[in-house]
Specification:
Blueprint lengths: L33 E6 L6 H13 L2 E2 L5 E2 L2 E7 L5 E2 L9 E2 L3 E2 L8 E4 L8 H10 L3 E4 L3 H7 L7 E2 L6 H7 L4 E2 L5 E5 L2 E4 L4 H14 L1 H11 L5 H4 L10 E10 L3 E10 L2 E8 L4 E11 L2 E6 L6 E7 L5 E8 L2 E9 L2
Parallel strand pairs: 1-4, 1-8, 4-7, 8-9, 9-13, 10-11
Antiparallel strand pairs: 2-3, 5-6, 12-13, 14-15, 14-21, 15-16, 16-17, 17-18, 18-19, 19-20, 20-21
Helix pairs in contact: 1-5, 5-6
């Protein structure tokens, strides 16, 4: 969605005057402006930025004298100020030059963390902001960045439904909540589901600061008719695509291995059979980056690992199988 320009009629209004009556919920700085920092890095998702950005930029407060103010001041912050690219369709996406780096960014009142690759200093910056009791909200898999910073340990949280399995396996201490638009994880941390859920969470935060009527007026200006920000109800149970493939290979002289891979959305789980060792359905842990894959086989008394590289057609993984201190070549071939 393209960012809608602020209507020309309001362009002359003073943006930094003190609010006539601070809202009962939330807090407003003496300047009347709440600073909202949007964390960005390579592969940032556009909707995760644009949705909340539109909500906060379109929020207007009516004053007793008939004037209006925009109470939010928005800026972008990243590991460095170097230009980066958002997600795109099989090519680099939008080019964005961050306003600030973590080293020189103004102290924010609200931080928005959408899906993105992350970068140096993000973990420490989020920990610092949380220690200052500032509001931090994630959208989609931005929740993973909060979890990596340790901000969600033992707390409820949500993320995009395609990544529920990944969240559950990578961060078992996080209390994953499904089928809601957003979750308040602690007094200052909020996590939203995928993509458009960020709009609902942002409207919820506007309502917390300035009341339901202001949030509704913002939604009306955006022509946004979703009601999840009021009810926090998810839409009907979403269908997540599931695929199953067997990857087969041999290591050593005779030993055959079959890895049964199940992909649900973007979450992978696998079990393995090694007939020569009387192993059937042993659990595994999958990890990887780029075209590199690691599989850890949880074989009682004889744990094993496989480190391999996926070929360009994603039909083979060639690497090394290690068990009981012995390394042997192994190539897994994708079957039906």
């Amino acid at each position: 969605m393209k960012t809608i320009a602020l209507i020309a009629l309001l362009a002359w209004l003073p943006a930094a005057q003190v609010l006539a009556a601070p809202p009962a919920k939330g807090s407003t700085p003496a300047s009347g402006m709440l600073k909202v920092a949007f964390v960005i890095s390579d592969d940032a998702n556009v909707m995760d930025i644009a949705g909340p950005w539109e909500v906060f930029q379109d929020t207007m407060i009516d004053q007793a004298n008939g004037e209006h103010i925009m109470p939010f001041e928005l800026f972008t912050v990243a590991p460095t100020k170097a230009t980066l690219h958002t997600t795109g369709s099989n090519r680099p996406g939008l080019a964005i030059t961050p306003d600030y780096s973590f080293d020189n960014a103004p102290e924010p009142d609200i931080v928005v963390v959408g899906a993105q690759s992350g970068g140096a200093g993000l973990k420490e910056w989020l920990q610092k902001i949380h220690a200052q009791d500032r509001v931090i909200m994630s959208v989609c898999t931005g929740a993973f960045k909060l979890a990596e910073a340790g901000l969600l340990d033992g707390k409820p949280a949500t993320t995009h439904h395609w990544y529920f399995g990944n969240m559950a396996s990578k961060f078992p201490d996080v209390k994953l909540v499904r089928e809601v638009r957003y979750v308040q994880s602690d007094p200052t941390i909020f996590t939203a589901g995928g993509l458009t859920s960020g709009v609902d969470l942002s409207l919820h935060i506007v309502a917390e600061h300035f009341g339901q009527a202001v949030a509704q007026s913002t939604a009306d200006y955006m022509e946004y008719q979703g009601t999840g920000w009021k009810s926090n109800q998810g839409i009907s149970t979403l269908t997540t695509p599931v695929t199953r493939h067997d990857w087969t290979g041999k290591f050593g002289a005779q030993s055959k291995i079959v890895v049964h891979l199940v992909t649900e959305g973007a979450s992978n789980t696998a079990t393995a059979d090694i007939p020569e060792q009387n192993i059937a359905g042993v659990s595994t842990a999958l990890s990887g980056q780029g075209n590199k894959v690691r599989i850890a086989f949880h074989i009682p008394g004889h744990p094993a690992t496989f480190d391999g590289v996926v070929n360009p057609n994603a039909t083979e993984i060639a690497g090394t199988f290690v068990q009981d201190g012995k390394s042997t070549p192994l190539t897994l071939t994708k079957g039906s």
